[in-house]
């Protein structure tokens, strides 16, 4: 008997959601490692949990090298996208394109549409999709960079707080040692004792 099929939707129970996240995150990281080993490729994986915690995995090259390579190739794609946008400033919005496609498809049922118009609409859709993907990728990478910067700041703040805690502990220990040292206690006077009851 095989495993039951899991419906892909948000898990409402917080504990189950956290357990599923951990298991699937680890599974995804293992698959990324296997892909790197089997194919000799450089793999970078960045996961941001619902609580904002950042998990990353890189194999082959370092994460920085992989991201730099990605940024370089992305910049080339962005330039191509900008060139496309400059060459075709009269493109319709995605919503308008979808409405036109729906109308053309309805017309196609009656065979009143030309192949040239369908090809033109297909090209516009491909270019609009390319622009949308480039924008989404750019925003995602900006978010990742922001989160990495925030993580660095928090780590630095954590180090400062840890050093302050160590200094406070040392200060308290030295004060305790001074209080317990024989120099501070009067060695001339014998310690007072309580009289015993008879």
Automatic annotation (TrEMBL):
Which residues are in the K-box domain? 81-171
**Low complexity: bias regions:** 181-192
User: Which positions are tagged coiled coil?
Assistant: 144-174
Which ranges carry the MADS-box domain? 1-61
Among Pfam families, the record links this protein to: K-box, SRF-TF
Q: What is its main location?
A: nucleus
Q: Where is this region: Disordered?
A: 174-198
- Which keywords label this protein? Coiled coil, DNA-binding, Membrane, Nucleus, Transcription, Transcription regulation, Transmembrane, Transmembrane helix
For whether the record's keyword set contains ATP-binding, the answer is no
Compartments it resides in: Nucleus
Per its UniProt record, what CDD domains does this chain match?
MADS_MEF2_like
Q: What is this protein called?
A: Protein MADS AFFECTING FLOWERING 5-like
Organism this protein belongs to: Camelina sativa
Query: Gene name?
Result: LOC104762674
């Amino acid at each position: 008997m095989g495993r039951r099929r899991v419906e892909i939707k948000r898990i409402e129970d917080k504990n189950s959601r956290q357990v599923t996240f951990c298991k699937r995150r680890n599974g995804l990281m293992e698959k990324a490692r296997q892909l790197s080993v089997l194919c000799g490729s450089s793999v970078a994986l960045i996961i941001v949990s619902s609580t904002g915690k950042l998990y990353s995995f890189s194999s082959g090259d370092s994460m920085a090298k992989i991201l730099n390579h990605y940024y370089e190739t992305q910049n080339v794609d962005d330039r191509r996208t900008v060139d496309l946008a400059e060459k075709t400033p009269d493109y319709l919005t995605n919503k308008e394109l979808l409405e036109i496609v729906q109308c053309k498809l309805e017309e196609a049922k009656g065979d009143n549409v030309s192949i040239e118009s369908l090809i033109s609409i297909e090209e516009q859709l491909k270019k609009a999709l390319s622009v949308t993907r480039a924008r989404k990728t750019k925003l995602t990478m900006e978010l990742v960079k922001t989160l990495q910067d925030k993580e660095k700041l928090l780590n630095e703040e954590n180090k400062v707080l840890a050093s302050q805690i160590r200094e406070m502990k040392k200060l308290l220990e030295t004060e305790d040692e001074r209080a317990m040292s024989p120099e501070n206690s009067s060695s001339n006077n014998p310690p007072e004792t309580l009289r015993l009851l008879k």
